[in-house]
Amino acid sequence: MLTYTKKYTVPYYETDANGNMKLPSIFNIALQLSGEQSHSLGISDDWLKETYNYAWVVVEYDVTINRLPRFSEVITIETFAKSYNKFFCYRDFVFFAENGDALLTVNSTFVLIDISSRKVAHVEDDIVAPYQSDKISKIIRGHKYTALSDTPLEKSYHVRFNDIDQNGHVNNSKYFDWMTDVLGYDFLSTHVPSKIQLKYSKEVLYGTTVTSRVDLVGVQSFHEIVSEGKHAQAEMTWKEK
User: Which Pfam families match (predicted)?
Assistant: First the structure.
């Protein structure tokens, strides 16, 4: 598998009130790098759309955080398309500090969707061949999520134009805003995440009103984004900063 590497200086506008890099920014820059690698290999998002009418979509994240990047810190990010089967592609991202310590690791699962039908498409070998990924037959089972209580904290959000990406649905990083916002300032200003597991189940489109629901049990939070059914689920483990 080929590794794509880039240095990145964390800007002020991508940090929160604690000076840490925001979770949505972490996932946005990760996906930017995967796109840059694809472009460098001649299989860009534009090529994929023009050739197959397909688009890449993230369906699951598994994140381990040792420390969040800080404002003005120069970090190095590596990404590689690790393996794939007929439905799923597995890509990792590793964020490093200047001294070489691993700050966080993102294990991600992608699918291809047909842009017209919005249905999952089979992964063609020639689409992933340039990444030199391992082809596997096994489908890696994702995390099993805990059902929420009957009385979770809730907050509703209306999907705006700037929440939508080029695939025509809510950008995956926006879900983190919705999920964590319900936890409130007092909790978020005194805690940082150490483990995140998130699953996207259903697209959210422009004009939809969604509800972010959360149960906070000690240092674990259990999340759902719902509208007409569940759009996403997450479980996060936190620690005091």
Answer: Acyl-ACP_TE, Acyl-ACP_TE_C
